[in-house]
From TrEMBL:
PANTHER family: H2HPP ISOMERASE. Residues 30-85 form the Cupin type-2 domain. CDD domains: cupin_KdgF (cd02238). This is Cupin domain-containing protein.
Amino acid sequence: MPEEFPIVATDPGVTRQVLSDHPELMVVAFRFETGAEGQLHAHPHVQSTYVRSGEFRFSIDGDERVVGPGDSLVIPSNARHGCVCLASGELIDCFTPRRDDFL
């Protein structure tokens, strides 16, 4: 249950809250203020991102794409990626396996 997991500030204007987890899968909500950034990074987990609200410019291994409500994308394992929030909103991310560093 989400109330089990705290809301954590990750970067300026960005918060993260684990919604559910299992050793093989984790669901996480990220909330962004306009102009906030998810810094470029990479991890071994496969990530699926669903845009619940807002507008974001994603960079995945150098390819850029603007996404809005209802859009989704998959980020392969070890792909260097990040985003800039163009209009405040929320991303729902799924990771496999789970991100133990988020617990």
